[in-house]
Write a structure and sequence with these properties.
With 251 residues, this protein is mainly alpha-helical. The protein contains eleven helices and two strands; from the N terminus they run H-E-H-H-H-H-H-H-E-H-H-H-H. Helices cover 47% and strands 3% of the residues. About 2% of the residues have low confidence.
Length: 251
Amino acid sequence: MPERVKSVADGFSEHKAISSHTFPLTDAQSAWASVHLVVLRDPIERYYSMYRYERSRETPRPANIAARQKDFGEYCKWWLSNAPGIWIDWQTRCCTPQSKRASTPLAGAPPKWVADLSAALEAVSNTAYAMTVDRFDEGLVVLEDRLHQSGIHFDASYIRQNVSPRESDGGREELLSEAFRAELVAANAGDYALIQRVRDLVDDRYRELDPSGERLAEFRRRCAALAGNCDALQVRVPGQSDWIVIADSGP
């Protein structure tokens, strides 16, 4: 899929970055971007975010209907029954480079696309710059420094957007039974191993770069200053008529 993304991007010479929830990392020898950035998230947190998002959308897609009709636990079970290839170890799958894809994927995954944990661990350690949501600011501080050392000026300060407040239901942890939560954790053992590796990488790199915490404090000041001018900087999400659909891997 990265080759298909590149073929589309080549037609838009003004583009500076491409983001996706779905396409896998390219192989190291065929890298076509200056930086391949990967941001990983606790799988159950990711599920809950999907659930909240799908519940907010009035569309006829099965995933939207399931989210509106089911509680969080039943929604998770619906995905596990219908598309385990998208639900189980999805982030490991996305971090598995093209050449490592096996021939027999799980149901619901794109053709020839499975999770290879050893290949994904190698990729996040060497091919891509990887970080985690729970180390987001620290990861961006390190990313800025790495890019500056490569001659690329990049200001990673950001405004928090598209953040859903916790509902009075207590959040995702209280919506799952202890047994089912353990089942989801076990099913996503690859993702949890991958996230821990990346978390350790970020922690090591950040401690070496900013032992005093001064860079992180300065970065957060920039974020606060940016938020103060957020009315002029809101990101516009194009309407569906403006989308360029490359692939659709969801049910």
